[in-house]
């Protein structure tokens, strides 16, 4: 009797193992793609009913960790305390890094202070919104009125009205029709 029971147990065990489906390991991977997507984004930040900044983007992808990606570009506009448009910032691609509360723009990055006639061009920029600072460690070209400055690394307030250019390489006066 015990022998029959043992034989049946062995046969049943071998059938259950041999009939098992093989599992694709890729099917068990955790999804880390976007959990939400939106188009034609327009975000406004205001203080005391006065617009302080606007963010526009054609597409936004939100991830589970709180990070946000703007794969088709991003534009940020900064306004004075009086509500006048002061500065624009554009990038080919944008990112919001939740853990650091930091925006990053990359690709063709252009910043323009309309009130001071200043322009900046670089390939990567960071905007630390709580500290109201923008910065980069990449090569930067700044046009201030009729003078062009080149350097590596820059730090400024988020209106780009006061800046510090690091590792200045050269500067020169622009010829008529030149500019960035």
TrEMBL record:
InterPro entries: LipoPS_assembly_LptC-rel, LptC
Assigned keywords, A-Z: Signal
A GO term from the CC aspect: plasma membrane
Molecular function GO terms recorded: lipopolysaccharide transmembrane transporter activity
Signal peptide: 1-19
Gene3D superfamilies named in the record: Lipopolysaccharide (LPS) transport protein A like domain
UniProt cross-references to Pfam families, sorted A to Z: LptC
Top-rank lineage group of the source organism: Bacteria
Protein name: LPS export ABC transporter protein LptC
Species annotation: Algoriphagus boritolerans DSM 17298 = JCM 18970
Phylogenetic classification of the source organism: Bacteria, Pseudomonadati, Bacteroidota, Cytophagia, Cytophagales
């Amino acid at each position: 009797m015990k022998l029959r029971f043992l034989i049946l147990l062995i046969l049943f065990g071998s059938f259950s193992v041999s009939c098992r489906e093989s599992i694709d390991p890729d099917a068990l991977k955790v999804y880390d793609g976007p959990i939400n997507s939106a188009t034609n984004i327009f975000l406004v930040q205001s203080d005391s009913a006065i617009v302080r900044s606007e963010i526009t983007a054609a597409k936004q992808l939100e991830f589970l960790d709180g990070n946000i990606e703007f794969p088709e570009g991003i534009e940020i506009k900064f306004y004075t305390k009086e509500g006048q448009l002061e500065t624009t910032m554009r990038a080919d691609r944008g990112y919001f890094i939740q853990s650091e509360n930091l925006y990053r723009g990359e690709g063709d990055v252009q910043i323009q202070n309309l009130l001071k006639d200043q322009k900046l061009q670089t390939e990567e920029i960071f905007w630390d919104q709580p500290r109201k600072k923008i910065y980069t460690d990449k090569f930067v070209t700044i046009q201030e009125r009729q003078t062009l400055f080149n350097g590596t690394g820059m730090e400024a307030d988020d209106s780009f009205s006061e800046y510090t250019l690091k590792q200045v390489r050269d500067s020169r006066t622009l010829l008529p029709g030149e500019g960035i």
